[in-house]
Design a protein that fits this description.
Blueprint lengths: L8 H12 L2 H17 L3 H4 L27 E5 L2 H4 L5 E7 L5 H4 L3 E4 L2 E8 L1 E6 L3 E6 L3 E3 L6 E6 L4 E7 L4 E4 L3
Antiparallel strand pairs: 1-2, 2-9, 3-10, 4-7, 4-9, 5-6, 5-8
């Protein structure tokens, strides 16, 4: 019978160990080595560690709605996600102030974000999104807006409330002149 050559030194070592150690301990040793070597040199292992997130609890309070957000025709209730995630994400409830004034509201724009989701809590909103056209979103409707998609609000009910989640928390909004 011909003697088989091993491909490398590391492949030869477990075979040698089997002579002097139990198969069980040899299996443990090689398993540990495999796990350790998997993580070395991978992009995920080299990625900068994010700060530890904390719990964010936000109870409804009418006085938490502030006119200090992106749009002058809206009031925002921050849900504490930005601080809890160290800027990884942002979540807020938005109340669009009625009645809708299309001259102020209907401006084509995009956000430089990685993720954006909107959920209609109350009322309705009519939007335009590039590639989708006009869509009426009623209470319970939910949509995502891919990064840098051009969009605008066309109309909304006087009682509309939206939940918006965005990554990252700080982002740039660009208005597009038509």
């Amino acid at each position: 019978m011909a003697k088989q050559k091993t491909a490398s030194r590391s492949a030869a070592r477990p075979a040698v160990k089997k002579k002097w150690t139990s198969p069980r301990s040899a299996a443990k040793t090689s398993a540990r080595k495999a796990v350790k070597s998997k993580g070395r040199g991978t992009p995920a292992a080299k990625a900068k560690a994010r700060p530890k997130q904390r719990v964010a609890i936000s109870h409804y309070r009418e006085e938490d709605f502030k006119a200090d957000g992106l749009r002058a025709y809206a009031k925002y209730r921050d849900l504490g996600i930005k601080d809890a995630t160290h800027g990884l994400a942002q979540a807020h409830v938005i109340r669009l102030q009625g009645p809708c004034n299309p001259e102020e509201v209907s401006k084509l724009h995009y956000h430089d974000v990685e993720f954006q989701m909107v959920y209609v809590l109350k009322g309705w909103v009519k939007t335009y999104m590039e590639g989708e056209g006009e869509t009426l979103m009623k209470e319970g409707a939910c949509w995502t807006q891919p990064p840098k998609i051009r969009h605008m609000i066309l109309d909304y009910s006087d009682d509309v409330e939206l939940l918006e989640i965005i990554l990252p928390a700080d982002f740039k909004t660009v208005e597009i002149s038509t």
